[in-house]
Amino acid sequence: MAERRYIGQSTPRVEDDALLRGKARFVDDLTAPGVLHAAFLRSPVAHARLLGLDLEEARAIPGVVAILTLADLKDVLTEERLPLQFISKTLPPDITPYVLAKDEMLYVGEPVAVVLADSRATAEDAASIIGIDLEEMTPVGDLRAAVEPDAPPVCSTRAGNVCEAFEVGYADVDAAFREAAHSVRLSMNQHRGGAHPIEGRGILAEPDAGGGLVVRSSTQLAHEARAFLVALLDLDENRLRVVTPDVGGGFGAKFLLYPEEVVASAAALLLGRPVKWIEDRREHFLAAIQERDQLWEIEAACDAEGRLLGVRGSMIHDAGAYVPQGINLAYNAVTAYPGPYVLPAYHMDVRVGMTNKVPTIPVRGAGYPEGTFAMERTLDALAARVGIDRVEIRRRNLVPAESIPYATPLKSRSGAGITYDSGDFPALLDQVLEAIDHAGFEARRAEAARAGRRLGIGVACGIKGTGRGPYESAIVRVGRSGKVTVFTGAMPMGQGLKTAMAQICGDALGLPPDRIEVICGDTGTIPLGIGGFASRQTVVAGSSVARASAAVREKAIRIAAHLLEADGGDIELVDGEARVKGTNVGIDLRAIAASAHGSPGYALPPGVDPGLEASENFMPKGLTYGMGAHAVEVAVDEETGLVTLTRYAVVNDCGRAINPRMVEAQIHGGVVHGIGNALFEYMDYDDQAQPVTTTLADYLMVTAPEVPRIDVRIAEYPSPLNPLGVKGVGEAGCLPVAPAIASAVEDALGVREAAIQRVPLSPPDLIDLLRARAADAA
Amino acid sequence: MNDGTMTGDQDGGAAQRFDVTMTVNGIERTASCEGRRNLVDFLRHDLHLTGSHVGCEHGVCGACTVLVDDHAVRGCLMLAVQAEGRRVETIEGLSPEDGPLSDLPRLFAEQYALQCGFCTPGILMTLREVIRDTPDAGETELREALSGNLCRCTGYQNIVDAALAALALMRDGGEGA
């Protein structure tokens, strides 16, 4: 076993130097000779029949090379629609987006035609003057109305606006209600907005002389993108390479092969010229996926001490106009509802509703924030009904440490049971109370009250399933140069993935991380890969890198033993060398690799197969679950409705931290995303389903002044499900933020029973709440 | 809404080309661009200095922030022709080409103040001005100064810590920015 010198240390990020010198290469930093720039004509209305396009004037603009519609692409496309990303036996076949709109446009921003021109400005000029002949149809924007039986259809050819309905649950929930001492009802309306990486989507598709294509895309799924493009463009896999440049954030928005990427690729093949498309922010608002709305109706029952007995209800999830990926968001949300608590009986009826809005797929958190919000609000409501403290009701319901591993009666979408594999949930709750000085809160509240400020405190917990399968790939190779390279299908987009992989490999091979190159998301260098989603990569790719590195280590030692005429047990790998312990006799990795590569006509060392490399595709048996406890203190201005966060603390289980500072940084980002969901980010549409928050001035992302110092404490309960013991943390931070803030705001205002059931919570919402409180008091 | 013809003067000269000269990171540079070309696109696509990034193209996210005559400006809200004859600094000029990172970017690395790094160039340029002009800034002032730069990854805390460290370094006689 190798010594752990790098795993667990906050080693410097290998990504940073290039990024800090302006030498990183994002997709818009790339170009190609003869490149054509694409601009899309998009549907101006939420629902209309497409009757025709007037392209004449646009085509006449100097510099415009082509304007293409779906019909123009038919020679290079095998299908008019995108393939469904996740396998489904139940979704109807006509549910995925068209590559370009065919005869009906279902949301504002849906791509209808593409202009290719010698500059982006010219392409945009041309797209702006294309005439669209359309017949407006009734748009369906309101989710609740959309799923009513007599609602107008989102798409004229579909049977209705519910694309899938399913039940999730276990045990006799009605019996639980018959035994209950207390019950509450909640009607929650949750909204999550958009992903909004600061770099939008983008692609450069470059044809080669042999009819093939190199696609450089700002994506979270290089290998999946290749698979879909191969199918849609009828290309041999060897003729299509997808390479991912530096990616400026993803957060879910890039975990999809989009129509624009297919169109750019198809147009490049059709025209025999490179095609580049760079999304602007308005397009991100209109046409990049969102997570948006869920409507929860919950009834919860508990015993006289506040222990949960059962929860039943329904949830409607807004899928938008198409389903490009699956129903995973809705499924995740309702299966995340029980969270880290013991819930003896549960039943939810779920409907996945369609609206004339851009499709939804997971944004950071992937349904878990909604499930967490619903559970945490349930607990606050029950605490008020029972008359016990909000922390105490959580303590009484958390899965006790002695019950871990805890098999819930629910299954994840792979069919594997949802089992909380390690952790001590009550201990994390205690730690977060200590971190925020919960014991000292009432004194702080009293002092603030003397100065005319209303303080409140809120606590909430969440648990995130991480490390989703089926596998991730890794090849670890010591080249003839002696240089070590890690290849993986995992996709960095800011997490520091390359650093973490280099730390893991570095421990095995006795090399500092900055001497290991990590190449991610290039289908030309590694055949298999899944990509970046579900807080999975340190778990799944990390385990593959660990195993492949261990295999390379073992082989390097075996060869070194042969070359040095020593016993393998006496050899250590240090600083790029295999040394006989306690001597200065050694041989460097370059010589070992050369020996393994062999010389023409000469034998390899005995028992050694060619090359100093290993390939691993770790397949996790199930998700590994990391619990997080959050506590927040707020000050509320009763006149303006302004909520100011004054303290924030998080304790989150990451299994084992590969790089503690990077883990903390992931939690910081997740919490601030959650603050956006709680207080600011609202993707608004008018009653015609026309988006009205299409700039970052209208759609409020969190900025530095709104954020308090976040005290992050890492808990390490190693997972038994992977060789490193790690759990993902990319999303965890955003889960319990909104319910913790809602609880704190209510506490500040003296409002109880979980009156806040809608997020984001705006100042006008707060004023309404205060008026309702005043009316109740009167 | 324009009427579709982008020639002659109906577009107000937007597509008319100009030779623009400015000093970028200490070197005089000239390139030809359309009148409507904004400064950041000029830097990125005409001068091939792709370190400054474009995040929203409507002046909110701050990723395109560069210094013009020592003041932070949005590269997407200033036309290239408006920078004629002026002094522009970008992230490429922050650290010596073949030397170690200068203080502020080095402190960003030390404090894990960047993740995807896409917003980072604009944030560095914003802070360069803040650190120079308000050496006594505290955390509250720094957060306020950063309110024009969006970052989706970091939650800002480590950025603030890097800036505080830079200010401390400068008070101790270092360069800081």
From TrEMBL, chain A:
Q: Which InterPro entries match?
A: Ald_Oxase/Xan_DH_a/b, Ald_Oxase/Xan_DH_a/b_sf, Ald_Oxase/xanthine_DH-like, AldOxase/xan_DH_MoCoBD1, AldOxase/xan_DH_MoCoBD2, AldOxase/xan_DH_Mopterin-bd_sf
Domain annotation Aldehyde oxidase/xanthine dehydrogenase a/b hammerhead: ranges: 21-138
Where is the organism placed in the taxonomic lineage, from the top? Bacteria, Pseudomonadati, Pseudomonadota, Alphaproteobacteria, Rhodospirillales
Cite the SUPFAM superfamilies for this sequence: CO dehydrogenase molybdoprotein N-domain-like, Molybdenum cofactor-binding domain
- In its UniProt entry, what is this protein called? Xanthine dehydrogenase family protein molybdopterin-binding subunit
Q: Which domain of life is it from?
A: Bacteria
Q: Tell me which Pfam families the record gives.
A: Ald_Xan_dh_C, MoCoBD_1, MoCoBD_2
Q: Which GO terms describe its molecular function?
A: iron ion binding; oxidoreductase activity
The UniProt keyword set, sorted, is: Molybdenum, Oxidoreductase
